[in-house]
Amino acid sequence: MGEVILTMKGIDKSFPGVHALDHVDLELKRGEVHALMGENGAGKSTLMKVLTGIYTKDSGTITFEGKEVEFHNTHEAQEAGIVIVHQELNMVGDLTVAQNIFIGREFKKGIMIDDKKMITESRKLFDELHINIDPKAKMSDLTVGKQQMCEIAKAISHKAKVIIFDEPSAALTEKEIEDLFAIIRDLRAQNLGIIYISHRMDEIKVITDRVTVMRDGAYVGTLITNDCTKEDIINMMVGRVIYEEPKTKSMVPDDAPVVLKVEHLNAGKMVQDVSFELRKGEILGFSGLMGAGRTETARALFGADPKTSGDIYINGKKVAIHSPQDAVRNGIGYLSEDRKRYGIVVQKTITENSTMATLEKYTSGLFINKGEEKKITEQYIKELATKTPSAEELVVNLSGGNQQKVVIAKWLVRNCDILIFDEPTRGIDVGAKNEIYKLMNRLAAEGKSIIMISSEMTEILRMSDRIVVMCEGKKTGEIRIEDATQEAIMDKATRDIK
To answer: Looking at residue 343, what DSSP letter applies?
Structure first.
């Protein structure tokens, strides 16, 4: 490793209600592959967005090649030589490889685009990277791995001095990962500085020189990769104080009936042969890192995404779920992680949202029984302690926690016995979180069965009776709450699938 090329010192960034970065430090040297690690929500992506000009920092300094800098957009960062290769590839499928690499800065011959020159320059880039890709090929015809190689070539075409890889191997095959690592080693040999964001522990040990760990928006520390163990990194990632007492014993009797049984569920790459059972009155936690396939499993179960195979049994009876309507008819309610997109209509009232999944019950011909609608809505406003002036308040005017209660009310009005809570406390404050926790425990005690997907380890340990852990689309373990620790969950959540 050479001299320091990039230093971020005391970076602070807040959004309304969220302190996203709390005086974070990061140092990168020339010819170094530097891992940036942390749980979901640790602040890794926010830090990189500050670096590349997507966000403006509130305080702190960025020093690049010995000079203090502040970029106001990604174009300025690219011009300086700092480029990010995103997990979601930014390619236009209908254009050629060469056209994608030089999109927005095409070579011209007079007023015409010089495709021949772009093809020649693309070929030079691929030769430099030892990649065999036809610059004239249509981008949509390439594999995800090849598309990513094109993103890297595009980064190099900006005369990059620092390249940020954000979860680069998430969608790649083992062979494609080997090819990626060969390119990264070559870039390191050319004295580039590389920031490598990944959740895959085994990759970190193979490809990186140093590891910086973030937790809850703050800098925890930096380790030399060869001098530390996987356990050292995990302890740094999850070592925060748990303010909520974790659950130490399951609340579910051993003889509680199985209300939901899923066998060999498959739905694309992100749901592979997933099987599990859910018992009456149980809160079954689903844990795993970003890209583990938890939400995809829930959506396939709920019929929101098509499944390719697998069987679903409710109360011992095999059921066919091809759509959300089928799921709702079978007593399943789904609280999406993106409540504003899938859970509520923010420009409608609490009443309209609460009865949305049960409207036929309050409709006679062309007329809606407004009195009955209001009565049931007010019942659940009281039961869930939803803070609102009235049942006719627009949902857009409620806080995040109260919006979440409206979504829950919708499924309770429907009287669903099985509830899927996907990131139930995302984006809501601590007080509202505790209210949601109490509500979930009460529903379970009343006999409702809950699948809870959460990226927060403390939430998983506080709420779950049993925990299913997923990694890369597969179930990698099942842990009784009595045996659950943060380290045990993280070990299964980072387990490589061969």
So the answer is: I
The domain locations on the chain are: 4-238, 258-493
How far is it, in rounded angstroms, from Cα 56 to Cα 224?
30
* Strand partners of residue 109: 112
SS3 378: helix
Contact between 236 and 221 under an 8 Å Cβ cutoff? The reply is yes
Q: Is domain 258-493 annotated with CATH 3.40.50.300?
A: yes
Distance of CA 279 to the CA centre of its chain: 27
- Please give the Cα distance from 270 to 297 (Å, whole number): 8
In tens, the pLDDT along 449-460 reads 999 999 888 889
Q: Running DSSP on this structure, what letter comes out for residue 349?
A: B
Between CA 255 and CA 237 the distance in angstroms is 37
- Around 115, how many Cα atoms within 13 Å sit in the side-chain half-sphere? 7
Write the DSSP string, 87-111.
Answer: SS----TTSBHHHHHTTTS--EETT
Phi-psi region of 273 (alpha: psi -120 to 50; beta: other; left: phi over 0): left
Q: Give residue-wise pLDDT tens across range 384-432.
A: 888 888 999 999 888 777 888 898 899 888 889 999 999 888 766 555 6
Query: Which pLDDT tens digit goes with each residue over 202-250?
Result: 788 899 999 999 988 999 999 999 999 888 888 888 774 434 567 889 9
Answer whether 39's CB lies under 8 Å from 215's CB. Answer: yes
Task: Give 41's contacts (C-beta < 8 A, 6+ positions apart).
Answer: 216, 455, 456
The listed CATH number (3.40.1190.20, 3.40.50.300, 3.30.70.660, 3.90.79.20) that belongs to domain 4-238: 3.40.50.300
CA dihedral of 368, 372, 378, 379, whole degrees rounded to 10? -140
User: Are the C-beta atoms of residues 83 and 77 closer than 8 Å to each other?
Assistant: yes
Distance CA 215, CA 379 (A): 41
Residue that is written with structure tokens 């003889």 in the block: 255
Place of tokens 């579910």: 252
Across the range 293-318, mean pLDDT stands at: 96
Cα atoms in the Cβ-side hemisphere of radius 13 Å centred on 201 = 22
